[in-house]
Amino acid sequence: MSATIIPETSGGISTASAMRRNFWRGVWRVMRRKPSRLAGAVILAGFVFMAVFGPMFYPDNLPGDANAITRPPSWEHWFGTDPQGRDVLALVITGSRYVLLSAAVTALITVVFGTGLGLFSGFKRGRWDTVLMRVTDMKLTIPGLPLLLVLATVWKFGNPLQMGLVLGLLGWGGVARAVRAQTLSLRERGFIEAARGLGLSTGHIIGKELLPSMAPYIAMNMLIAVTGAVYAQVGLFFLGVLPYESNNWGVMLNLAVFQAGAMITPYAIGYLLAPLLAILLLTLGIVLVVDAMDEIFNPRLREE
Amino acid sequence: MITGTGITKTFKQRGGVLAGREVRALRGVDFSIAKGGAASFIGESGCGKTTLGRIIAGLESYDGGEIAIDGTPMTPLKPKQRQPHFRKIQMIHQDPYSALNPTRTIHQTLQAPLALRARQTGRSKQWMEERAAEVLSLVGLDPGTVLSRYPHQLSGGMRQRVVIARALTVDPEMLVADEAVSMIDVSLRLGILALLKDLRERLGVAVLFITHDVATARYIGDDGELFVIYRGQVVERGSVDTVIADPVHPYTQSLLSAIPVLHGLEEPGEQPVVPLESLDESQADTGCLFARRCPFRGERCESELPLLQVTGGVPQEHACFHPQRRSVIARPLSGV
Amino acid sequence: MAQPETAPPRPAPEPVTAPATPAPGVRIDGLTVVYKTPAGELPAVRDISLTLEPGTITGIVGESGSGKSTLALSLLNAVQPPGRISAGSVEIDGLGDVVGLAGERLRKARGAHIGYVFQAAQNSLNPLKTVGKQLLDLGRSHGVDDLRGLVREAKLLLGRMGLDGARVLDSHQHELSGGMRQRVGIMLALVLNAHLVVLDEPTTALDMITQANILKIVREVHAERGLTTLVITHDIGVVAEVADRLAVMYGGRLVEQGPTREVLRAPRHPYTRGLIQAIPRLVGDIDEARALPGRPPTLATVPKQGCVFRERCALRMDICETDDPAALADGPRIVACHAVGVKERA
Predict the structure, then answer these.
(1) Exposed / middle / buried, residue B122 (Cβ in 10 Å: 0-12, 13-18, 19+)
(2) Highest mean pLDDT pick, A11-25, A142-156, C15-29, C287-301
(3) B208 phi-psi bin (left φ>0, alpha ψ -120 to 50, beta other)
(4) B216–C208 C-beta distance less than 8 A
(5) Beta-carbon contacts below 8 Å between B and C
(6) DSSP B9
(7) Is A275 exposed, middle or buried (0-12, 13-18, 19+ CB in 10 A)?
(8) B292 pLDDT higher than 90
């Protein structure tokens, strides 16, 4: 039995790097399987590019053309101009940074908080679980919108990070509950029990065994949290309950309807449609990419 | 290596119409399994055999009684202190499909416990790689082809071998195999059974086999001990050969009578025992637990619980007021 | 049990007890079923010919991937895409060739002529409806006028199988044990008076004692109602208990068939022999039991030409690599193996 031939191929480091390479090759394979997924990825990449580099192409204060106020779309201004004569497309692009940055922060907080709490709660069970889930329930019962309205009276939300933080702290409850439910079902699986029986540390079990199995789930939740956050903040600005501290899509919608009168005059139609279209495209991109998550993180589905 | 005395376990039903109802999974079970020995727990599903196996592997708590591993009682110890003792006992699950993490390669699966082992004993990464290859060879797999695979790329039989290899990484003294072949293709089952038998012979690992199929239990080790469990009570206990050839408890006899007869090769036993009704957990607990289903029950069986003991001039322990040998198992036809 | 699709009640219901004579015979001839995969169309069942004599129980034994379940589904012409029957015929007395049936006629045939009991009836019952409601749905979708009569018949059948009919009809799936569900499955397959019954893994996941009970019921009900029965299983023991005739499948091919006792006593195909040898027994020398080397092929790994079993075969010859052995009949026994052919000719 001890006369075992050790094969050459099982070197530790080379295996790990080879595996990483295989993973990305698998991701590419999964994305290529449906054109819609590639389209979704392209859309998302486009938005990220727009948010990161877009504002660099424009001056801090967009110039307004007093002779072209609230114009319908034209060759010069693809989506028309706003009541100050500024180009709507430029407004959408410069406004994307606020929207996407705060949405990213929200998603990050939601997922980190929700996943962490859900995992801990579902894995430890017992007293900790009860306490944490009561807290989560209480949190879920706090109505988000009124709280935000109250917060808006003391806070200006001029900084996208602030906005993201608040929305994130309001949003993790659902993810925590869902992750806990997943954990409870996964922990009964043979491989988790085997890991416990082998004496592997809780850190290993949670980080290396549980988390990867839940990766598609978490990734999906994260992407969906982004959409939720975009809707929430755009909604808040649209309602006009937050001050117009910054340039973003919600403010644009608000001004289009209440100032430029997009409901009455066809001239402001571009002003109204441009941010709506941006939100729609972003959501579409996310929905198209979410479809691939299951296959990306499951080695069986990743293969051909 | 492990002994249990008077182990009890009660489950409380949660939720649903039966909420709060208690199910007595184990009603005071005694057992002991020697170093390198073999034992089998036999019974219908829901009889408590799996619960007992899980308690032995340290995966489940018990309400009463005492378990001692190599002479050390477990009850006074804190969960953290029990861990090193229970690590000597590794469970082989029934379902090789859920027992391996689908997102991890076999290499990763084996490295995790080996890393732990290496840290404890101060060994190198090189040793971990060698040992991974070694345990795979022990279970009859080719390390070169298996290590880089994901579980879904292996057949059920190969997965179960990987599960056994993973258990071997921590140098266990006992393997608890819970219906370890029931989800594997028939032509491959015997290979897994032979492997367990072989590991027992070569490495001196004790094997506890949990099954409803007596014939597979016999294959693991005919020198082993058989525990027939019914509704949380051991109703018959003796060496495998004695209990199979001369069962005295009507429940053991029903189990053996129920094994399909290979007509053409075998003829049915002369006095098969067929239970009157099917298992109903809600039956009353007064008297013998098997009384309601027993074709031979007497008045005493209705009111008094028979305890496990040696009486009636038979070598094995049994819990029956009317122990009687019956020829229930199929006999091979002569001239075949 | 085929889940009843919700079809509108027919204005002029056809008679439930079709003019079919009791205990129909079935003749499967040259049946091939292929599955569409990225690697092209692969045969799950290849060129199978099998006759079910009226009034007999036939057992098909095979491991996972042997094509036994696909074969059973072909009897109902119920192979789901990406699979399709690409060649051959399935003639059932009173129905004709089911491969040609489609639409409404096929739906009526399932249930009324052919009863199908799914694997241990675990997931074939609707968890949200009581058994009784599902029974009524089944009756309505088959245009049964006399629903009271149907319920009476169901209770009778359940009573025959040792259950309290009224109580079971009032129960949901989760209130029934595995053995009870299996009996409900058998009841639903028989209640429309089908005389051809297919049982797919009737005892998998059941305990020994429950298994013995179910097998006894299958045998008795088969005799009492004059059925033609097909049992699909991976367990030779199950077939040995109930079947008159045994057919062994491997890699989509029927490698051996014959009267159960004869095949068990003197198996001819090396695979059948290996399977029987791999069963741990209660008496005799333990070391006589021997595992088959290798592992069963999957759809993708089945050899494209030559004998499907050769990789694991001890009697392998050169010809096995290239030629698929033909199924040769010797009295009631049929074997598809080059090595067996040689022995007989010699």
Answers:
(1) exposed
(2) C287-301
(3) beta
(4) no
(5) 132
(6) E
(7) buried
(8) no
Q: What is the pTM of this model?
A: 0.84
| Contact call for B218 and C282, based on CB within 8 A | yes
Q: In 3D, which of A243, A234, A247 has the Cα closest to residue A54?
A: A247
How many angstroms separate the CA of residue C63 from the nearest CA in chain B? 6
Amino acid at C191: V
ipTM: 0.87
Which residue matches tokens 């939100």?
A279
Is A188:B98 a contact under the CB 8 Å cutoff? no
- Calculate ∠ Cα A270-A275-A278, nearest 5°: 115
> DSSP assignment, residue B263?
B
Nearest to B244 by CA among B230, B228, B229, B260: B228
User: Residue C196 half-sphere exposure, CB side, CA atoms within 13 Å?
Assistant: 24
**Minimal Cα–Cα distance from B115 to chain C, Å?**
32
Classify strands C114-117 and B331-332 as parallel, antiparallel or unpaired. Answer: unpaired
* Chain B residues closer than 8 Å to A15 by CB: 107, 147-148
Task: Return d(Cα C137, Cα C126) in angstroms, integer.
Answer: 11
Q: Is the N-terminal amide bond of C19 cis, ω within 30° of 0?
A: no
Helix (H) or strand (E) holding A223: helix A211-239
> What distance in Å separates the CA atoms of residue C63 and residue B84, rounded to the nearest whole number?
40
Length of chain C equals: 346
The distance of B183 to chain C (nearest Cα, Å) reads 9
For residue B113, give every residue at least 6 positions away whose Cβ sits within 8 Å of its Cβ, in sequence order, or none.
Answer: A198, A199, A200, B166, B169, B170
Tokens 């298996």 locate to: B146
Tally C-beta pairs within 8 A across A and B.
110
Q: What is the mean pLDDT of chain C?
A: 85
Selection from C52, C47, C38 nearest residue C67 by Cα: C47
